[in-house]
Amino acid sequence: MSFYEKSWKMMKNQRKQWKSKTKNSSFYVQYSGISEFECTIVNRWGNTIYSYTDPAGSWNGQTSNGDKVEEGTYFYVIKAIYEGGIPIEKHGFVEVKY
């Protein structure tokens, strides 16, 4: 399984740094200085299929029930708060290919 993503690195002092398009076995966020975090993965119909609140966590292409998702494009919404109370919200897409 491969994940192709274009996601934001969440670094406190470098807010608009892109992670390059890569091939990975899971989707994750590089972060620094985050006090609160939530990442939600939704399908093309907007249904939540997975979410996590640990910024060190990741998504491996399975639903919350442990079922493997179909190939296709999935979308993420990240809501976080930097240390010091600065909120941030990012969104983008992840392509799953087997």
Task: Walk me through what this model shows.
This protein has strands at residues 2-5, 10-11, 22-24, 27-28, 31-32, 34-42, 48-52, 58-59, 72-82, 87-97. The chain starts with a strand and ends with a strand. A six-stranded antiparallel β-sheet has the order 3-1-10-9-6-7, with no helix packed on it. Helix content is 0%, strand content 52%. Residues 1-21 have low confidence and may be disordered. By secondary structure, it is an all-beta fold.
The chain-level mean pLDDT equals 79
> pLDDT below 50 for ≥5 consecutive residues: which ranges?
1-21
- % residues in beta strands: over 45%
Distance N terminus to C terminus?
A: 4 Å
Please write the string of helix (H) and strand (E) elements: EEEEEEEEEE
Widest sheet: strand ordering: 3-1-10-9-6-7
Helicity range of the residues?
under 10%
- The count of β-strands is 10
Helix/strand-derived category reads mainly beta
Number of helices: 0
Q: Which word captures the global form?
A: elongated
Largest sheet: 6 strands, antiparallel
In short:
Helix content is 0%, strand content 52%. By secondary structure, the protein is mainly β. The protein is elongated, with a radius of gyration of 13 Å.
List the helices and strands and how they pair.
Blueprint: E1 2-5, E2 10-11, E3 22-24, E4 27-28, E5 31-32, E6 34-42, E7 48-52, E8 58-59, E9 72-82, E10 87-97
Parallel strand pairs: 2-5
Antiparallel strand pairs: 1-3, 1-10, 4-8, 6-7, 6-9, 9-10
Give keywords:
6-stranded antiparallel β-sheet; 10 strands; two-stranded parallel sheet; elongated; 98 residues; mainly beta; disordered N terminus
